[in-house]
Amino acid sequence: MTSKFKDARLLGHLLVLFCVLVWGITFVSTKILLQWRSPVEIALDRFVLAYLLLLLMQPVFKRPNWREELYFFGLGLFGVTLYFLTENIALQYTQASSVGLLVSSAPLLTAFFAHFTTHDEKLSQRLIIGSLIALAGVALVMFNGSVILQLNPLGDILALSAGAAWAVYCLLLKRAGQRYGYLYLTRQIFFYGILTLLPAAWLMHYRLDLSLWLDPLQGGNMLFLGIVASALCYVAWNKAVGIIGAVKASNYIYLIPMVTMLTAVVILDERITLVGASGAAMILLGVYFAEHGLGLPSRK
């Protein structure tokens, strides 16, 4: 393995690590904004801001290729509209820490989907066992959220749906490779994400509120979500997937719940129960086993 190749892979891992650290905080940031804005308003505002920033950075327009545009449309639909609507609506029904944990099912879903849609990423024995351990942890988290804390289980289902949408996005993104510049690719994804958000915005009675930008708490959180968590992190994530692949990049998503839990405890004063902590531990154990095993050989 050449030094240049090692450096590129290291960059890919560092970019993904940066993204998951930022995204772990976004659950809490969104939870704060839900006091004043609806889920679709938060999603649309942040991606319009991100798109305008990327448009300033990459003001290049190419002649439309309808096959490519359809591909960008799919990325925008799954990676922006479906993911963020289900995730943000879930935050209205359950704790930020629970949403973070359940959305972290995305790596498992990515691996399962990849098994049936790709030729080079098939499920192994230890991946299946590790997945079952992690899924048991997810079940504990759902039990913790819907029974012990008496929260609406609809939030749990929506959070899992967000994980599935992100898994589809990553698999679609894998096919992009390095055919497009990452700024241009991300800008197009945001364009179609905004486009597919508009019907939901209309149905959910979107309202434009420019006054929120004058409030330090609301405006600061929106700037964080739009500039850092959307524009910057999506470019970094898309580049990282092009370097290390969808499955390896997705495995880092399991760090998001830890960041979210710590942030929620500090900022939102949320309580982490023993059941929830046990579920988190099982998720991490399952991921470790899926990657490294415990002395069992990997069988294709």
UniProtKB/TrEMBL annotation:
Matching InterPro entries: AA-Vitamin_Transporters, EamA_dom, EmrE-like
Short name of any one Pfam family annotated for the protein: EamA
Entry membrane topology: Multi-pass membrane protein
Main location class: membrane
Residues of the EamA domain: 11-142, 154-289
Positions of transmembrane segments: 12-34, 40-57, 69-86, 98-116, 128-151, 157-177, 189-208, 220-237, 249-268, 274-290
Keyword annotations: Cell membrane, Membrane, Transmembrane, Transmembrane helix
Record's subcellular location: Cell membrane
Cellular component aspect of the GO annotation: plasma membrane
PANTHER family, per database record: INNER MEMBRANE TRANSPORTER, S-ADENOSYLMETHIONINE_S-ADENOSYLHOMOCYSTEINE TRANSPORTER
Name this protein carries in UniProt: DMT family transporter
